[in-house]
Amino acid sequence: MITIALTKGRIEKDTVKILTQAGFDMRFMADKQRRLIFTSPDGAFRFILVKAPDVATYVEHGIADIGVVGKDVLIEHPGAYLEMLDLNIGVCKFAVASVPDYNPLDHKRKKIATKYPTVATAFFQAKNEDVEIISIQGSVEIAPVLGLTDAIVDIVETGNTLRENGLVEIEDIRRISARLIVNSASLKNNDKVMAFIDKIEEIVGKTEVSFDEAING
Ligand SMILES: Nc1ncnc2c1ncn2[C@@H]1O[C@H](COP(=O)(O)OP(=O)(O)OP(=O)(O)O)[C@@H](O)[C@H]1O
Ligand SMILES: O=P(O)(O)OC[C@H]1O[C@H](OP(=O)(O)OP(=O)(O)O)[C@H](O)[C@@H]1O
After folding, report:
1. What whole-number distance in Å separates Cα of residue 111 and Cα of residue 151?
2. Displacement of CA 39 from its chain's centroid (Å)
3. How far apart are CA 199 and CA 99, in angstroms?
4. In the prediction, which pLDDT does 213 show?
5. What are phi and psi of 64, to 5 degrees?
6. How do residues 38-70 score in pLDDT, each as one tens digit?
7. With a 6 A CB cut-off, is 137 part of the ligand 2 pocket?
8. Number of the ligand closest to the Cα of 154
9. How far is the CA of 173 from the centre of ligand 1 (A)?
10. Which helix (H) or strand (E) holds 15?
């Protein structure tokens, strides 16, 4: 049996769409209620529904052979899994944002609020800029409004949360999308895992890895 870890929440619907297009009967997801583990009718696949960072954990430890999770999570939680495909769903970006009078060229040591300290630290280090990172668990946009920090590093999708809280985008950091990850032993030892990946690749198309991706992972 192959186990596939899916991220609960935002990217769930689009993931199910891809799996359905790939020929899986995913109707159980329509009325899943509070269940978190599902087995396909033929007993060949098991799907588990977990929080995003836990997808990486289950795949890394070989409990799940395959996982679907956002690139944002993979950057913050690097581990021993292989990233195989860009699924082109859950597309958004990391950006720096702040209040309109923020001056990025100001020489003072800035404070940056974020849920993504690894991303924020790497971004400012690459600019040779020494900043203080303040970790925030959510509603990050209010930190510069309330004067906790000078700016934020956060996910931007539609831009609505920034606009509705009076923030503006200062600089793009990188594109984010959901990725298919795999446990390396599963890939080596189980032909069905490669067959599954091939099937998904037919649906989402071959992904060109951009220069940015190649150097930043
Ligand atoms: N507007 C967005 N905000 C956050 N993540 C987004 C957005 N748009 C797409 N995504 C992608 O969707 C994935 C899942 O997001 P979701 O909000 O369900 O989980 P999460 O970020 O772990 O949030 P939470 O902590 O609220 O459960 C993210 O990891 C990211 O790759
Ligand atoms: O550009 P937008 O389409 O407005 O989306 C971006 C917002 O969505 C996410 O927050 P989420 O809803 O996950 O809540 P959080 O603040 O608790 O992380 C993210 O952290 C931004 O706040």
Report:
1. 7
2. 25
3. 46
4. 56
5. -105, 140
6. 998 889 999 999 999 999 999 999 999 999 999
7. no
8. 2
9. 17
10. helix 12-21
Residues with CB under 6 A from ligand 1: 7, 9-11, 51-52, 70, 72-73, 90, 92, 155, 157, 176, 178
ipTM of the shown complex? 0.96
Count CA atoms within 13 Å of residue 102 on its CB side: 22
Q: Residue 156 — very low, low, confident or very high, per pLDDT cuts 50/70/90?
A: very high
Beta bridge partners of residue 169, listed in sequence order: 97
* Proximal ligand: closest to the CA of 91: 1
Phi, psi angles (nearest 5°) of residue 37: -125, 130
Ligand 2 mean position, distance from CA 141 (Å): 9
Burial of 136 (0-12, 13-18, 19+ CB in 10 A): buried
Nearest ligand 2 atom to the CA of 159 is 1
In this predicted structure, the answer to whether residue 165 has a pLDDT above a threshold of 60 is: yes
Residue identifier of the C-alpha nearest atom 19 of ligand 2: 155
Domains, the chain, ranges and CATH? 2-90+177-216 (3.40.190.10), 92-175 (3.40.190.10)
Residue with CA at minimum distance from ligand 2 atom 6: 156
How many Å separate Cα 100 from the centre of its chain?
A: 28
45 CA distance to ligand 2 middle (Å): 32
Is the Cα torsion angle 140, 146, 147, 148 positive or negative in sign?
negative
Query: Nearest C-alpha to atom 2 of ligand 1 is from which residue?
Result: 157
Is the pTM value of this prediction over 0.90? Answer: yes
Instruction: Give the SS3 label for residue 201.
Output: helix
